Amino acid sequence: MLRIGICDDSAEARQYMLQLCQKYYENNTDAFEYKMYKNAEEVLEYCDDEENQKIDILFLDIEMDGLSGIKLKERVLKLDKIWRIAFVSSHDEKMIDSFGIKTIDFIRKPAGYMDVKAVLEKVLIEKCENIGISYLSERGQNIVIYAEDIRYIEAQGKYSYIYTNGQNFVGINISEIEKRLEDSSVIRVHKSYMVNLEYATLRNGKLSIRDMDIEIPIGRSYKETVKRLYHEYGERMARRRM
């Protein structure tokens, strides 16, 4: 089931986007949930509540009273409640500013049904590709950490630390994690480290993790593979989100 958010300071625009989403699901057996927000501040309030479910796709206006859609995009990078963003705007000159890790598309107002259909189908495809790590916590709970949420992984002997917005200690060695995440954007870069290419920046032979004060070393035997996968990933994401 897809969770859809619609943020626009125009009630008429919010309702129109909802109708386009509903039209898509008239011909789709899957269900969907939706949340409406009249400004960016309401989105941030939603994100601050730990009990709220993650929004899979947020249709986001750019020019709004208070915090703009572009500023909101920057704020939610550090939060785990918004998965993908599709900007909906009549301001073509803002398109470059809208690009980012979470941005999946830019729709020119007025949006059409085919625009919304294309976005929803992109998100559904990416959700199917979102592999995860499942493990039992000390309390016996089954915990799933999705590849999308992982920033990097650090080996600690036979066990591992998985860094998302927080930190998870799991009783799985890094080689086993590498196998489980084989088809994801999380790759091995060192005998003791894995990184998510979605959050990584390669510069001067080192990897830094966005919004985290850390540099990840690249092992000598991994250098050529990391460089190739890094550039291939960037090209693939650029093509997918055109």
Secondary-structure blueprint of this entry?
Blueprint: E1 2-7, H1 11-26, E2 32-37, H2 40-48, E3 55-60, H3 69-76, E4 82-89, H4 95-98, E5 103-108, H5 113-128, E6 132-136, E7 142-146, E8 152-156, E9 159-163, E10 167-170, H6 174-180, E11 186-190, E12 193-196, E13 200-203, E14 206-209, E15 215-216, H7 223-240
Parallel strand pairs: 1-2, 1-3, 3-4, 4-5
Antiparallel strand pairs: 6-7, 8-9, 8-12, 9-10, 11-12, 13-14, 14-15
Commentary on this structure:
The chain is α/β, with parallel strands linked by helices and 242 residues long. It has helices at residues 11-26, 40-48, 69-76, 95-98, 113-128, 174-180, 223-240, and strands at 2-7, 32-37, 55-60, 82-89, 103-108, 132-136, 142-146, 152-156, 159-163, 167-170, 186-190, 193-196, 200-203, 206-209, 215-216. It folds into two domains: 2-128, Response regulator (Rossmann fold, 3-Layer(aba) Sandwich); 132-240, LytTr DNA-binding domain (OB fold (Dihydrolipoamide Acetyltransferase, E2P)). A five-stranded parallel sheet has the order 2-1-3-4-5, sandwiched between helices. It has a five-stranded antiparallel sheet with strand order 10-9-8-12-11. Helix 1 (11-26) crosses helix 5 (113-128) and helix 2 (40-48) runs parallel beside helix 3.
